Amino acid sequence: MFTQFVLPYNYDAFEPYIDAETMRLHTTKHHASYTQKLNDLAAAHPEFFGDKSIEQLLANLTVAPPEIQTTLRNQGGGFYNHNLYFEQFTTVPTQPAGKLLDIICRDFGEFAAFREQFNNAATGLFGSGWVWLIQTDDGQLKICTTPNQDSPIMPGAADITGAPLLALDIWEHAYYLRYQNRRPEYIDAWWQTVDWRVVARRLGVV
Ligand code: MN
Fold this sequence. Notes:
Blueprint: H1 20-44, H2 46-49, H3 54-59, H4 66-87, H5 98-108, H6 111-124, E1 129-135, E2 141-147, E3 163-169, H7 176-179, H8 183-191, H9 196-203
Antiparallel strand pairs: 1-2, 1-3
Helix pairs in contact: 1-4
Manganese (II) ion binds at residues 26, 30, 82, 169, 171, 173-174.
């Protein structure tokens, strides 16, 4: 049974950056739907799912039975990506600090350069998808994008793969009610909600 991340905050906690109705629909409709369909797939294919974690399932996507690969990719990716996304919201503004900041500066020069590169990836991604800060197998931090609900832990889904540290949802359902076509305004607002303590924990430097 895959369990949707339970919000430790209210839907309106991120006004005016992210509006309450978007948070409500995003969690109770979109994320809930991915989760339900993933659980339906698991119930229908216990021989493949076994007791694998979602990370193991997505990393093994290409060896899943061919008839379930598309559903696992879309619904499993949607479940996993949104758990990462909703976990990293905070109402207490934070900034990257300590070892996390050191590693960002090591790999991007400075924090502002990292943020600019991330913003450029987000505004430049055509259609629906995600922007990621990941840690590659050799320990480097990199920015990558994935289409649809693909995830950087899926083999071949991005030009580089790795462990997700920071996830930005740029499907229109994440911002259209408040920002309509103004994706850059959503991205600017979203930065105000990022919990860098969660990012540091994912990197293992806390
Ligand atoms: Mn979404």
